[in-house]
């Protein structure tokens, strides 16, 4: 049966009502949206308008860190020792590069030298923050810089600009005392954590260098300065499109440091040493100012500024003359016969009669062994023993006084001390006595804590356990020359224009008459017949004379009964040559010590060098110049100095004494 069609009727009013409801609903939603949008716009434009205006400016403008110029280092006369010079460099901004290898390949076509440093560049890129540029090449020639500048715009992320680089104008003359700067290491970075944010950001700058040794390290904070900021306008990709000088902040340069050193005297010391190994230290005996403190051979600190190659560093490290070792402060040596001045002074301080005589026949039997002397001096008193440097006399003098009393006087004159001169690296050396030996050997060799009688004669001639550095020996002779005050060395004259630690010296607790006795004997060392420096220690400056004491310090064990001459041996087996001096002898003003490592005889190796350095200091002094009158200028010309044997050579080590422990003696080899 077919279905019947059905008809559906709708009410027109009902449809109209549904439509009206929908219109009102949609209209309400739109109205609410417009109201919310209007409110949000009001909130953003009016209530937070200033905030977003600043954010917009921050997107448009940026601050680039500007490292401050490092402070200069001058000598006492204003001569520039370390400063800054213009330098051209090429950097790569990794946040603008898609493929670093492709970019480096393009740069290598312009600068072929970057091929050899590619591994270093990639390492630096990985270590640096992505926003920090990485240096590809520095200290470029003008020709290379021009080529890079021409093509830099065609290589994304490559920037060529001008920078400042640390420069050391005297090469190796000040390499140890002034030190050098180099790129900051991760170890340095860890030490700097926790400091001001601006300081920490400066450490990441590609041109920043930190002090690694000497003055550069000790006063790095003063020399560093305060970073500034350069306001630049950037595009959406962060590229600089313009500079805004109004909003930039100028960096504050580091403080300048003035040293007490004299560049002329320092350079003269380096010249007279040539390729020989050793050190020279000179002081003003009244102020304590250090005029010269060299370590030879030195190294060129400019090599470390940009980064020294492994091969170059290995050459410095492996060279047997050890240019990286500071022989003025770090290396210590037996003082040899220079120590006899203090042994004699200790004897006088403890009631020893200077007229006491001993006869030297070249040997001194004591206990189960025989000690030797390099000459047969005959019968001598204390004055004559100092002048001729008789070992036999001082063996017996030391036995009469004892090690404890000798050590006490030696310490009064600065031996065994570390001085506050502003830089580190000093070793105290050893001034032995019975308490020292017991404390040192108690854990190492419990059966060898006693001071054996056979150890005292060796101490009397500056051998055995006794070890000093060149600065200490200079301080000792400076105090002898002063005679009243315990002079302390000073290396820094001023920082940022302000005087640095100008302190009063304590009185020297020694009888002035005893000091005068030793000084008179030292004067005869260079002027009296038989004096160990009589042939090589004359200044040829008219009435100006030099007083001193030679020394030859044993560097190896002599064969029993054999010769103690060592110049025919290999360099490392030769004795060390010493000379300590002050001048003028009649009115002392300057004191110095010279050590020539493995130099052989003190009189033939150390004295001529000390003579030339002392002449330079005296000829520069206006007051001394006035005394050099009625002197033929031809007499002031350097004259060849004849070499001769030195009677200071030490005897072989006492077999009754334990050998000096290797960790308390550093001969700088």
TrEMBL record:
It comes from the Bacteria. The chain crosses the membrane at residues 23-42. It is found in: Cell membrane; Membrane. It is a single-pass membrane protein. Residues 66-243 form the Penicillin-binding protein dimerisation domain. GO terms for molecular function: penicillin binding; peptidoglycan L,D-transpeptidase activity; serine-type D-Ala-D-Ala carboxypeptidase activity. One of its GO terms (biological process) is cell wall organization. InterPro entries: Beta-lactam/transpept, Beta-lactam/transpept-like, PBP_dimer, PBP_dimer_sf, PCN-bd_Tpept, Penicillin-binding_protein_2. Its main location: membrane. The keyword Repeat does not apply. Residues 635-669 are annotated as: Disordered. The keyword Protease applies. Residues 278-614 form the Penicillin-binding protein transpeptidase domain. Keywords: Carboxypeptidase, Cell inner membrane, Cell membrane, Cell shape, Cell wall biogenesis/degradation, Hydrolase, Membrane, Peptidoglycan synthesis, Protease, Transmembrane, Transmembrane helix. GO terms for cellular component: plasma membrane. This is Penicillin-binding protein 2. It comes from Asticcacaulis benevestitus DSM 16100 = ATCC BAA-896.
